[in-house]
Amino acid sequence: MINNDEKEYLENQFLENNDNIQACIENKLENNKEIIKFFFLCLCFIIVFKPIQLKLKDPSNPICRPYSLGQPELINMYIVTHKDFTNNVIDDPYYKILCDERSQLKNEYKLQIIESNKDNILYPRKYGYCEGSKIYPIWKQYKSGILNTKYVGVCHYRRVFPFKNEMLDLDGIFKDYDVILFNRYDFGRKTIRDHFEEFHLIRTFDEVINIAQEMFPEYAQYAKNFVNKNWGNFCNIFIMKKEDFIKWGDFVYGILLEFDRRHNLNNDQDIRNFVTKEIKETHKNFDINYQSRLEGFLMERIANIFYDKHFTKRYELPTGEI
After folding, report:
1. Which residue, among 258, 263, 276, 283, has the nearest Cα to 208 in the 3D structure?
2. What is the pLDDT of residues 206-265, one digit of tens each?
3. When comparing pLDDT for 309 and 100, which is higher?
4. How far from 297 is each of 28, 184, 235, 247, 292, CA to CA, in Å?
5. C-beta of residue 298 within 8 angstroms of C-beta of residue 204
6. Residues near 139 by Cβ (< 8 Å), separated by ≥ 6?
7. I need a labelling partner for 189 at 20 to 30 A (CA). Which of 24, 99, 114, 279 fits?
8. Sign of CA dihedral 223, 224, 225, 231
C-alpha cells in the first residue's frame, strides 16, 4: 500500500512532468509558428517578386536589356531575319538576333533573341518592308528611351560584319567618320533612278522622293541630287550613333508610312494588290512576288538621302555572307 507521503510525492511529480510536457508543447507550437511564418514569406517572395526578377533577367525582353541610368553601354548589334537560317557561322557574342516570335532560332541558337512581333505596327507588312519591319521595333525602343546604347548596328541574316569576336574600335572610328556603312554599290553610267526603273516600279520611287521633299523640306536638295547619283550604300546595313539612328528612323519610316497611308496599304495583301495593279499597267514582265517587297526596295534608296545630308565621311565595310 502507498502511504500518504508517497502519494503526495507521486502527485507532485505528475504535475511537474505535466507542466514540463505542456511547456514543451507550447515551445514546439511557437517554433512551428515561426517555421510556418518563414515558409509563408518565402511563398510570397516566389509569387510576387520572382516573376519580376525573371523578367528583368530575360534576354528576350527588349524593355530591360540594356538600360542604363548612367553612361550607356557601347553598342547593340542586331541581326534581323525573317526566316530560320541554318548552317550559319555566326558565333560572335556582339550580335543579337531579332526574329519572329515563332522562330525556331529561339530553341536552336545560342545568341540572344529579341521577339519583334509585339506592338509592331509593321508586322502585318513584314514582307513588304523586308528587314525594315524588324528594324522598326528597335527604332521605337530607342526613340522612347527604353533602349540606350552609344551606337546601334544592324545587319541581315545573309550579310553580317565579320567582327571575329573582336569589336571594332568604334570610338576611334567615329572620331574621324560619321557612320559605318556596308560597301557602296556603283551603277556605272546608270543613275540610281535609271537602275530602279529597270528593276522596280518607277512611279513608286518618284512618289517617295516627292514625299521626302514635302515632309522634310530641309532634305529637298539632297533628294533632287540623289536621283542622279550613280552610287549609294544600300541594304540597310550600318552602325550609327544612337542619335543619328533615331533621326534616320524618323526620316525613312515617316516617308514610307505616309506612302502607305496615301494608298491605304495596311498589310502585305494590300501591298501585293497595289503592286499587281501597277505591274499590269506598266511592267507586265515583272515578278509580282519580288515586287511585293516594295517598301524594302524604297527604304534602302531613301535612306541614302539621309546619309547624303548627315554623313560626309563614311567608313565602309564589306560583309561576310552566311
Report:
1. 258
2. 999 999 999 999 999 999 999 999 999 999 999 999 999 999 999 999 999 999 999 999
3. 309
4. 76, 16, 9, 20, 10
5. yes
6. 245, 246, 248, 249, 253
7. 279
8. positive
Please tell me the distance from the alpha carbon of residue 206 to that of residue 196, in angstroms, as a whole number: 10
Cell numbers standing for residue 252? 525613312
- Residue that the C-alpha cell 558565333 belongs to: 91
Amino acid in the structure at residue 144: S
Residues near 10 by beta carbon (within 8 Å), at least 6 away in sequence? 2
DSSP SS3 for 274: helix
Residue with cell 524604297: 298
Residue found under cell 509563408: 40
- Whole-angstrom CA distances from 295 to 50, 113, 218, 254 are 43, 25, 23, 12
The residues that bridge with 75 in the sheet, in sequence order, are 151
Residue type for position 133: S
Question: Model-level pTM?
Answer: 0.76
* Lookup: cell for 272: 501585293
- By three-state DSSP, how is residue 276 classified? helix
When the pLDDT of each residue in the chain is averaged and rounded to a whole number, the result is 82
pLDDT at residue 223, rounded to an integer: 97
* Angstrom distances, CA of residue 84 to CA of 38, 132, 196, 266: 47, 17, 29, 25
- Contacts (Cβ under 8 Å, ≥6 apart) of 241: 150, 151, 152, 174, 179
Cell for 88?
550559319
> Which stretch of DSSP H or E encloses residue 299?
helix 294-310
Backbone angles phi, psi at 185, to 5 degrees: -115, 130
The Cα–Cα gap between 300 and 270 comes to 21
The C-alpha atoms of residue 244 and residue 239 are separated, in whole angstroms, by 10
pLDDT in tens, 71-101: 568 999 998 887 766 555 565 667 888 877 7
Residues in the chain: 322
What pLDDT digit, counting tens, does each position of 13-34 carry?
545 555 555 555 556 556 566 6
Q: How far apart are CA 185 and CA 44, in angstroms?
A: 60
Pick from 192, 261, 199: which is nearest to 274 by CA?
261
Cell 508543447 belongs to which residue?
25
